[in-house]
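Before the break, one more example. Copy the sequence into your notebook; we will annotate it together after we see the structure.
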Amino acid sequence: MKEHKRIERLMLFSHVAKELNFSRAAENMGISRGHLSEQIKFLEGELNTNLLNRSTRHVSLTKDGEHVLACMESIKISLTSMERDIHHEKNELEGELKLTAPLLFAHRFLYDICDDFHKKHPGVTFTLNTSYESHDLNKKDFDIAFRSTKSPPLDMVAKSLLTYQHTIVASANYIKKHGKPESIVDLTGHQCLTAEHQSAWSFKNSLVPITGWISLNDNFSLLQQALDGRGIARLPDYFVEKHLRNKKLVSLLNHEEKLAHQIYVIHPPKIQQSARLKAFLNHVKQKVMNEY
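Here is what the structure looks like once it is written out:
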């Protein structure tokens, strides 16, 4: 039996083990369900054990299946680490940097930072994921994560990049029509533009119930509604600062103490000697400090 075929079957099994659904796993991998089922049966025969409990409606892992999945996850982590190390071994300022960051942070800072860095170092290119998901850098091949968190991962290099607060803002037109809230209690009498399923805004020492005519799942839309004078919004201060400077928005309740949040820059420890990583992180720090 060829070793590479067993490795291939083990990789196929790990997909099935995660999905616990042959049809979905086959679709995700772009292969037929019949071929996938056949390969898993071959693997079980090679290992002389059942890896999956199958019924007409349900698939679950046996104890041996759980053990094999854990081993495969460890192998995948090692492969990701190996590829990342090779990717960063060269000392030249060239190659790809893979980043993941919150959308608002990317919009406010990261797009311009990457563009500026690329102009200085044309050999460096970027792949940027703006998902709000907290990706595990042991399993995903991102080089750097920018993340708002209170608990950065202990097995990664994590450095605080900026501190921000959520600012309460409204347009001058809204204030002219509806007045300005003088205390957090006054918010209950105003149209508060909220995120989906949000019924309260948190301050350092209190949680204030709020209501409004619309809830939105997009901060850009919340910002636009506030700019159009349709209510009061609560958004990260770094995201609305330019609108405060040009007076399109007014900051409210500044006397109220707000919660502080941290955005960290996070990366695996093994790649911290990479020339392009070090140069880019220094560039990020300088740009954020100069602009915020």
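The mean pLDDT is 88. The two ends are 61 Å apart (CA to CA). Try to locate both features in your own notes.
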